[in-house]
Design a protein that fits this description.
CATH architecture of the largest domain: Alpha-Beta Complex
Structural class: alpha/beta
CATH superfamily of the largest domain: Medium-chain alcohol dehydrogenases, catalytic domain
Largest sheet: 7 strands, mixed
Distance between the termini: 10 Å
Shape: globular
Low-confidence stretches: none
Number of helices: 14
Helix content: 25-40%
Mean pLDDT: 95
């Protein structure tokens, strides 16, 4: 089968990391890049508790772009095994069922929870976090019967959705109701990242919430807040007109356009009924601000804004994939006693009094008509056209891009 794989060889890595800064196309098209479309064998079931999935759509995530452009921190490398087939956003059909995989039938439409924790790895007893349902914080993601890998799509044994087939443990399988489309299905994973963050860090009814970033995750935070019926005031900080339209569509009350000058800071302050204060030197700060901030970008500017726009005693949730951030001024963290919390993927959350996998809650919200994510899917490509797919995903303003998917 065809698969898009990432294989790390240090000489290639070093050359491409240096050359890519001068010519970004070399991350994908260069002679020494780590990305390749290959013919490989389908992955085998690790045990009979596993199933094979025929991929319908495999999404391109911002984390995949960070990987390909070599921006990921080496700190995560112990939790990856090479070569791996990329792709952790997955909707497909069951094509083979192991003899010990219960309650799953060939032909069923499913999404896959990609986290490879104790249960998938055959580890008993479970670690303390998995016992509590926080399997996204599993202590054994480089142990057990599988090679290292935080997720399906970073483990060489499981395959990934940038191919026609992958394998999944029965515990990872989430079935799709008939009336939930494949277009919604492939967006359940990124939506669940937002949903988990909101459920772990909920606003109060009268809070003003600022969502920084209006890519798929940022818009999904807006959608999750409204799907969960929070009545807070939602402000979205966006870059482009098409993002503003989607933010309003999914329930944002106010839109602030990020500008290269500092006008957006004054606009934000007016929206929050706050004051802009100018230090002797340096960036302006905001006295007052939002009660809750969801930071969905992960670069220095967005993190600066998250700290700048949080009110005293405010909460900041970090979804964006920040790693190395130079020259960050953390004064506002202690001066305003900010409550800052990171968020990794999804796990088990409580919905209507019952603890469930976040992806299952997402499916139920879509099935109940609380949210329709299909408008976020803007581009579909064959695997063979991965250069064009990655270009569309990386150049949002030129192509009005939200979610780009492969249809293997």
């Amino acid at each position: 089968m065809k698969a898009i794989q990432f294989d790390l060889h240090l000489p290639k890595y070093a050359f491409t990391k240096a050359a890519g800064k001068l010519n970004p196309s070399l991350y994908v098209k260069g002679p020494f890049n780590c990305l390749e479309l290959r013919d490989i064998e389908k992955p085998q079931l690790p045990t009979e508790e596993w199933v094979e999935v025929n991929v319908t759509y495999g999404g391109i995530c911002g984390s995949d772009l960070n990987l390909i452009t070599l921006k990921d921190s080496p700190a995560t490398s112990p939790y990856v095994s090479f070569p791996f087939t990329i792709g952790h956003e997955i909707v497909g059909k069951i094509s083979y069922v192991g003899t010990e995989a219960a309650g799953i039938e060939v032909g069923e439409r499913v999404v896959i929870d990609p986290v490879l924790a104790c249960e998938a790895r055959g580890i008993t007893p479970f670690c303390k976090e998995c016992e509590k349902g926080n399997y996204n914080l599993c202590q054994h993601m480089n142990a057990g019967i599988l090679s290292p890998g935080l997720l399906t799509g970073t483990c060489k044994d499981t395959g990934g959705s940038w191919s026609s087939h992958l394998v999944a443990h029965q515990s990872q399988v989430i079935k799709l109701p008939e009336h939930v489309s494949d277009e919604n299905g492939v967006l359940i994973e990124p939506f669940s990242c937002a949903l988990h963050t909101v459920m772990q860090n909920p606003p109060e009814p009268d809070d003003t919430v600022l969502v920084i970033g209006a890519g798929v995750i940022g818009i999904s935070v807006v959608a999750a807040l409204r799907a969960l019926e929070y009545t807070c005031n939602i402000v979205a900080l966006v870059k482009y007109d098409f993002q503003a339209e989607l933010a309003r569509h999914f329930g944002a009350d106010d839109i602030i356009f990020l500008s290269k000058d500092k006008d957006y800071i004054s606009t934000a302050a007016n929206t929050f009924q706050a004051d802009v204060l100018k230090p002797v030197i340096g960036e302006p700060i905001v006295h007052g601000g939002a009660d809750v901030i969801y930071e969905c970008v992960g670069n220095k500017k967005s993190l600066d804004d998250a700290l700048r726009f949080a009110k005293r005693g405010g909460k900041v949730s970090l979804l964006g994939l920040a790693n190395f951030v130079d020259n960050m001024d953390l004064t506002m963290v202690w001066l305003n006693e900010l409550d800052i919390k990171g968020s990794f993927a999804y796990g088990t959350d409580t919905y209507k009094g019952e603890k469930k996998r976040t992806l299952q809650i997402a499916v139920e919200l879509i099935a109940a008509g609380k949210v329709d994510l299909a408008p976020l899917l803007t581009h579909t490509f064959a695997l063979e056209n991965y250069h064009e797919a990655l270009d569309a995903a990386a150049n949002k303003s030129n192509k009005n891009t939200m979610k780009v998917v492969f249809a293997p």
